Amino acid sequence: MQPSLTRLLAAAALPALALAATAVSAQEITLRVHHFLPTSSTTHADFIQPWADRLEAESEGRLRVEIYPSMQLGGKPPQLFDQARDGVADVVWTLTGYTAGRFPMIEVFELPFVPATAEATSQAAQAFYEQYAREELADVHVLMVHTHAAGSFHMRRRPIRSLADLPGAKIRAPTRVINKALGLLGATPVGMPVPQVPEALSKGVVDGAMLPYEVTLPLRVHELTDSHTEIRGDRGLYTAVFLFAMNKKSYADLPADLRALVDRHSGLPLAQEIGAVWDRAEITGRQAAEAQNAAFYSIEGDELARWQAATQPVLDDWVAEMNAAGHDGPALLAAARDLVQHYSR
Questions:
Q1: Segment 166-181, tens digit of pLDDT
Q2: For the residues of 190-227, what is the DSSP string, one character each?
Q3: Are residues 107 and 120 in the same domain?
């Protein structure tokens, strides 16, 4: 072949190569998001779906997000973290406390009377993760850490009006920390993922559950219970830490501009957003319980002080565990409390 003809053919091929390169760069990428709540939940409808919609819109369709609620990709809720780690799903939303003791540092926000509102505590948890707990969650790419609003007791035919009502009461708890706290308060803690709560209540496996009002609504817990006990004061008895996390390879394989897009919709602003969403949803959830003509009780004043004293060993044990692991337990607890105070202003 003559040199001039070779150059001509090469020049003719350049537009096709450029077009192919453009097609590859514009190739649609799909992220599969897996979580354990139904589509009616606040988490799905008011957090994950809007997050997905923003990514799709701002990527001009290059990034698609498929959401699989209610464990539709298989497995059990406690397996979600490992599904993100192993690539079964690209993104998961889960509770760190579903695997007891696996993430002990971040559970500082689950300690009795540490959490405040969901908005304040979610930002505090995210900031704490960034400063202290990155290594603990290093198996995944963390998009955001957050908490729900401080939980209440939701009881069926066994109202909680004071410490005297707790002995023998079988109460669902979400984490090992709250299991300990309930035991110290005299109750019988029963650990189970939240989707199992309605059946456990209806069959009498538990007398009640500790949950935020927001979660009671999609699970219809408000229809299965007849009394609700709330903890007064500026700090709640408990919350739970949630993790919105991505498979590390799925994140690394994104083109640089799409990684930057995901980054813009991660971190502290997202924690503040979901915290505010959960705080607003508490109002709706409580109103649904009120519509059932349920009884409402408050723990406050001297009675609250008795609860705080009774659960202090849970905090002491956590500090001791951190010290034994080579950390400064008192400093970490103080840092968490300071962050909650900071974001409560």
A1: 999 999 988 899 999 9
A2: EE--GGGHHHHHHTTS-SEEEE-HHHHTTTTHHHH-SE
A3: yes
